[in-house]
Design brief:
Shape: rod-shaped
Number of domains: 2
Number of helices: 2
Strand content: 5-15%
Distance between the termini: 51 Å
Helix content: 40-55%
Structural class: mainly alpha
Largest sheet: 2 strands, antiparallel
Length: about 100
């Protein structure tokens, strides 16, 4: 994630560095993909990427971190699938 600091002009208009509040701007946020919020396929791709990272990691702590991350991505994929099923059931109730 790449970030940059951008100054914002203060109320007084004084543009000296000590009077400017600094805002952390996340450049990755500009590339935001709303479809990732609930897409199990994307979550599973991230899990696969983390597993690949774990396979190539030489340090044990990095391997463990990558495997834990892969587990979390899988959990999010399962949760997203469950939410989609529940939403479909709620929107299309079965007639008895």
């Amino acid at each position: 994630m790449q970030t940059s600091l951008k100054p914002i002009a203060g109320k007084s208009g004084d543009r000296s560095p000590r009077n400017l509040p600094v805002v952390l701007v996340n450049r990755a946020a500009k590339e935001y993909d709303p479809s990732m919020n609930d897409d199990p396929i994307q979550y599973r791709k991230r899990a696969d990427a983390e597993r690949a990272t774990a396979e190539t990691a030489t340090l044990p702590n990095l391997r463990i971190r990558a495997l834990r991350s892969a587990e979390r991505w899988e959990e999010m994929a399962m949760r997203a699938e469950r939410v989609k099923v529940l939403a479909a059931e709620r929107n299309n109730p079965k007639s008895a």
